[in-house]
Amino acid sequence: MDVLITNDDGIRAPGLRALYRAVREAGHTPKVVAPMRQQSGVGHSLTAFAPLKVMEIREESFEGIGVFGTPADCVNLALSVLLPERPGLVLSGINAGPNVGPDILYSGTVGAATEAAHEDLPSFAVSHEDFKASVDLLPHARHAVALACKVDWTRIAPRRVINVNYPMGPLDRAKGVRICPQTTAVWKDSYDERTDPRGDLYWWMVGEIPAHTIERDSDKDMLGRGYITVTPLRFEFTDEDAMTALKDMGLG
Fold first, then answer.
1. Would 209 be classed as within a structural domain?
2. How many domains is the chain built from?
3. Sign of the C-alpha dihedral computed for residues 117, 231, 177 and 158 taken in this order
4. What does the alpha-carbon distance between residue 62 and residue 31 come to, in Å, rounded to a whole number?
5. pLDDT tens, 173-215?
6. Domain that holds residue 167
7. What are phi and psi for residue 25, nearest 5 degrees?
8. Dihedrals phi, psi of 27, to nearest 5 degrees
9. Residue 189 maps to a domain
10. How many CB atoms lie within 10 A of CB 89?
C-alpha cells in the first residue's frame, strides 16, 4: 500500500522521518510530500496568491518531495499532480507538541489530514506531547502505523480524521490507548511585550488552557494523565439547534 506522509514541522523533522521508517518496516511504500519550512499553526490554510515550488530530497535512507507551501498545499499537490496513484492511507505527523481540544483548529498537522479526509482518504493526524522531541519517536511511529492499519475504514463515516496524541516520554511509559472526545476548553492567550536589540517593541504570544475548564476523560485530560488518546474528528460545522432557533426568530 502506498502511504502519503506529510506534516507541518517540515520535511526534515524527526517525527516525519520516524513515520517514514515505520511505514517501510511495515511493508508499505512511503510517499513523502511535506513542507520545506516550519508550518506549525497554519491550520488548513492554502496558498492562493503565490506559486508553489517543490524540491526533491534524496538521501541514503530517505526520499521525498519538499513543498514551499502549507501542509494542506502538500496534500492537494500530492493528490493532484505529484503522485501517480492515490495512496491507501495518509499519515500527518508525528507533530512536535500535542494537538488536542482547540489545537485542532490551528494545527497544520490536522489541517493536512483534513485535506486528505475531504478527498475520502483514510487519514491519521499523529502528535507527541513533547515539543522538543527529546525521545526516540520510532516506537511511536511503529505504534501509529499499526494502529492505522487496524482500523476498519468501512465502518468509519467518510471525511473523518483519526486524531492520535502520544503522552510525554517514551512509548513504554504510556498507560495505554483511550478513545475519547475532544475537550471543549479553549486557550486563554496573552502577549508578553518585549524589546528587540534595536529597542523596538514586539509581542510574544503565551497562554494556557485553564485546568479547571478541561472535562474529565476528554483528550486533553487523558493525554495529561499519560494515555495515548484517539479522537475521531469530523468537520461538519452546521449547528442544527441554532438553525431551528434562527427560523423561530423569523429570520428565514
1. no
2. 1
3. negative
4. 10
5. 999 999 999 999 999 988 999 999 999 999 999 888 999 999 9
6. 2-184+214-248
7. -60, -30
8. 90, 15
9. no
10. 21
Specify whether the CB–CB gap between 43 and 54 falls below 8 A: no
Q: What is the DSSP letter of 130?
A: -
| Res 133 pLDDT > 70 | no
Cβ-proximal residues to 9 (8 Å cutoff; 6+ apart), any chain = 15, 16, 38, 39, 40, 95, 96, 109
Sign of the four-CA dihedral 162, 95, 131, 202? negative
Q: What is the pTM of this model?
A: 0.94
DSSP tag of 182: P
- The answer to whether residue 199 sits within a structural domain is no
Tell me whether residue 207 is in a domain. no
Output the CA torsion sign for 59, 65, 67, 73: negative
Rounded-to-integer distance, Cα 73 and Cα 217, Å: 34
Strands 177-179, 29-35: pairing kind: unpaired
Cα separation, 246 vs 151, whole angstroms:
39
What percentage of the chain reaches a pLDDT higher than 90? Answer: 94
CATH number at residue 29: 3.40.1210.10
Rounded to whole angstroms, the Cα distance separating 147 from 230 reads 10
